[in-house]
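Hi everyone,

Forwarding the result from last night's run.
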Amino acid sequence: MKTNNIKKSLICLGLLALVGCTDNFDEINSNPDGFTQEELTQDFNHIKGPFTTMFDNVMVNVPGWKYQVAIDLSGNTWGGYTTAPGFDGNNNLSYALADNWNLWGWEAIYTQVMANYLKVEAASKGKYDEFYALATIVKVQTLHKAADSWGPIVYSKLGTTDAAIGYDSQEEAYGLMFKDLDFAVTELTKRIDAGETSSFTKIDRSTYKGDYTKWVRYANSLRLRLAMRVVKVNPTLAKAEAEKAISQKFGVMTVNADSFIVNKDVSQHPLRVAAYEYNDSRMSADMESIMGGYNDPRISVYFKTSEQFPGEYKGIRTGGILGDKSKHINFSNFGKIIDEDKQVVWLNAAEVYFLRAEGALRGWNMGGDAATFYKAGITASFEQLSVGGASDYIANNVKTAKDYVDPVAPFNSGLAVNKVTVAWDDAASNEVKLQKIITQKWIANFPDGMEAWAEHRRTGYPKLLPILNNQSAGAITTEYGVRRINFVSTEKDGNPEGLKTGIAKLNGPDNGGTRTWWDVNAPNF
């Protein structure tokens, strides 16, 4: 891992610094012989630049080292997807949360995405509201990840110049997100109905290429994701928002062409840096246990077989006792999904089918039944990855997760914990059906570990192997795992009075064991 590539970012980390850095940095460092204001606004260049930076930082695409510390060494590991060989010390993997890692997720969100969102808002609101609507959808995509990670966040006070920038509770933030999606969907739908030609084609770095209808479907699908997130704490709101998403005239994603994917024009997938340049990320033991147990053909797209054990997919136990890095470095690395595809997926059609399956299971009007949506989700995932055999996989009612064996450090081995088959069983309990839905959604969403971590916290599924090396000093239990990220040091230094408002809206102490608003320790049904 390389964290010495830190330049301007250190100047602009605190929220109090956000306004100063984004307002003045470009002006101070601009070339007086450069573009005029007229040239900058020609062909919406003044909007294109901020959008480009937003696209690059929502999932922390660049630089790769920042993705590693912001996502791969947090959500990817806590969500059961990846782990790092040889990271036995006090860090995120052992639940001793590392602020010098976790602060970069906050930095990407606020000094990269949100700072540029504010530029788009200033340039477009009331003048080019189509751009404002599109930026608002990106804002929701970004800030729901922040709220899911920290709980209380800065939302309503974005862009203010207050001496102390106050936080919204997670509940307040979710309410604002639903309202923002209302605006964006209404604004874009109005333009579609009027037959307006998209002005976003040259700016859009996603596979949508400015297609307003696809953006509306994405916004509706995002609403459905957020609705399901709050189901255990506010089921009435969850049902209403989910059904609103389905009933909107353009609906939600139904085919893989609807999936939101940032184009292949990046030089490499950000996970590749951690995996191949630093050799700091490998397949997790949970992926081996679950996908290996199912003999899931998608495993060959996600991972490569082990160099150390030819022909086998070998994962590493998160929070295990690994010893020297060389012992596990030749376990399974990542495959075609990052080597060739290089696509960064924000939300895919398969996930939407699984969300609809859960909604139908809960008795909501999702436009169909749970079994049909469940099977459609698996099929969509297989098709997205160009893998055959979906029908046989869906029908299998025998295979389950397999026990995990660490052949070089046997004390890391463990019995399988997510013992559920793939085949849908109408006679099964709702709890077993939910476990199947979330397990398949977990597989289909790889490598979006932040989403996997959030859904694991919400539902408890898929069940993951417990860590063996808990160094949290009692703050985080081995049974329940990391529930949130503690507030970062740059906020403590740069926005201390504002941060106090966030701490006051927590449900407990500012540590990784405190549950956020929607993460309640209650039954799923």
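The longest helix spans residues 99-124.

Cheers,
N.
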